[in-house]
TrEMBL record:
Record-stated family: Belongs to the UDP-glucose/GDP-mannose dehydrogenase family.
Organism name: Helicobacter anseris
Annotated protein name in UniProt: Vi polysaccharide biosynthesis protein VipA/TviB
Phylogenetic lineage: Bacteria, Pseudomonadati, Campylobacterota, Epsilonproteobacteria, Campylobacterales
InterPro entries (alphabetical): 6-PGluconate_DH-like_C_sf, NAD(P)-bd_dom_sf, UDP-Glc/GDP-Man, UDP-Glc/GDP-Man_DH_C, UDP-Glc/GDP-Man_DH_C_sf, UDP-Glc/GDP-Man_DH_dimer, UDP-Glc/GDP-Man_DH_N, UDP_ManNAc/GlcNAc_DH
Keyword tags: NAD, Oxidoreductase
Top-rank taxon, per record: Bacteria
BP GO terms, sorted: polysaccharide biosynthetic process
Gene3D superfamilies: NAD(P)-binding Rossmann-like Domain
Pfam family of the protein (one): UDPG_MGDP_dh_N
Molecular function (Gene Ontology), one example: oxidoreductase activity, acting on the CH-OH group of donors, NAD or NADP as acceptor
């Protein structure tokens, strides 16, 4: 029987390890020893996995030597961008070197980490050959099956989505496809690794562009004095109108993956205009939102210097505790630059992680005693729906509902 090793146990790797661990001897590996200890105690600090009991063939480790026992390696490490918006594949290459040390004849390495087309064969495969002293497609084989994990989404989970698979040879591609089919309802076998890589890159780039379009509409309609949400509701009555809402675009996928696509495009001599413009619009939204709040403060005759603002939501998206690249902190810091006194609330996220990442102290709703000039509902967590924002507002204050999800009867509400 195959023995599978999952390299990286975050939002992508852990669900894979849990499912494979129900049917195959599976090693869940992560360099974070604290993470491994928690998982050994059946605790997932991301709150994505509740039940570990059925994964009887799964073991967790932070010891690289334990990987030697596997014959199928699945790499699921993060692939962010650096401060210059360039792909940072350092973790991917480190994981590749780690696997290469233990690679043996007929082993398979599958990559799930998002990257640009050609990266697997041009960057990862040579490193595997170098560290293993084996020959690609003769001694070992490679596949690419892009992750489609959506943190906080309880409907589109690992086992009930369609999973793209691919392999470096026809035989290895079939084996990889059958492997995933054993735990996932539907798979789609792509004709090449490059096709699978490109498909992943455009999935999130497309969504980024669609959100950028409605974000730009919100900028236009703001100048015209028209409510964007009402325009979108009216337009959605047409059968083929695509439904997207304006807002902050952060996280580790949608706001990152387009840069991988533009990177490889630039390397091949084409400088993409549409994708880059979409990124520009979405990256400027925190500043646009701050400018709108400052204007509303003036409208309500509130001095920005000393204005008390409560921000609700610290994750990058609703009903999720992931704070990676959460754009709400850009809004917070820019409001502070105007002299505003800002507190941020979110009981879903880890306060220590927030401070470690953004050097911001998270406040607690249960300790709330102040009255605020502005309540900025930045993230549409379900539990924010029932909160009485008006009870913590100054008489002259207002609510800014960034996602337009509060009940219509709520008074003093402005939307994006």
């Amino acid at each position: 029987m195959d023995k599978i090793a999952i390299i990286g146990l975050g939002y992508v790797g852990l669900p894979l390890a849990i499912e494979f661990g129900k049917k195959y001897p599976t090693i869940g590996f992560d360099i974070n020893k604290q993470r491994i200890q928690s998982l050994k105690e059946s605790k997932d600090f991301n709150n994505e996995i509740k039940d570990f009991s059925e994964s009887s063939m799964l073991c967790f480790t932070s010891e690289q030597e334990d990987l030697r026992e596997a014959n199928i390696y699945i790499i699921t490490v993060p692939t962010p961008v650096d401060s210059y918006k360039k792909p940072d594949i350092s973790l991917l290459l480190e994981a590749t070197k780690c696997v290469g040390k233990f690679l043996q004849k007929d082993d398979i390495v599958i990559y799930e980490s998002t990257t640009y087309p050609t990266c697997t064969k041009k960057e990862c495969v040579p490193l595997l050959e170098k560290t293993s002293n084996l020959v690609f497609n003769k001694d070992f084989f490679v596949g690419y099956s892009p992750e489609r994990i959506n943190p906080g989404d309880k409907n589109h989970t690992l086992t009930n989505i369609t999973k793209i698979t691919s392999g470096s040879t026809e035989k290895s591609a079939q084996k990889i496809d059958m492997l995933y089919k054993s735990i996932i309802k539907n798979t789609y076998l792509a004709p090449s690794i490059e096709v699978a890589e490109a498909a992943k890159a455009i999935e999130n780039a497309q969504r980024d562009l669609n959100i950028a379009f409605v974000n730009e509409l919100s900028i236009i309609f703001d100048r015209l004095g028209i409510e964007t949400q009402e325009v979108l509701k009216a337009a959605q009555t047409k059968w083929n109108f695509l439904s997207f809402t304006p807002g902050l675009v952060g996280g580790h996928c949608i706001s990152v993956d387009p840069y991988y696509l533009t990177h490889i495009s630039n390397e091949y001599g084409y400088h993409p205009k549409v994708i880059s413009s979409g990124r520009f619009i979405n990256d400027m939204m925190p500043s646009f939102i701050v400018q709108k709040i400052i204007k509303l403060l003036a409208k309500h005759q509130i001095n920005p210097i000393g204005a008390k603002i409560a921000i609700f939501g610290a994750s990058f998206k609703e009903n999720c505790k992931d704070i990676r690249n959460a754009k709400v902190f850009e809004v917070l810091k820019e409001l502070q630059e105007y002299g505003c006194i800002v507190k941020i609330f979110d009981s879903l996220v880890d306060s220590d992680e927030v401070f470690k990442t953004y050097h911001i102290h998270l406040s607690k709703l249960e300790e709330l005693q102040d009255l605020f000039d502005v309540c900025l509902v930045a993230i549409a967590h379900d539990y924010f729906l029932d909160f009485n924002y008006e009870k913590i507002l100054q008489p002259h204050g207002f609510i800014f509902d960034l996602k337009g999800f509060l009940p219509k009867q709520t008074k003093k509400v402005y939307k994006l």
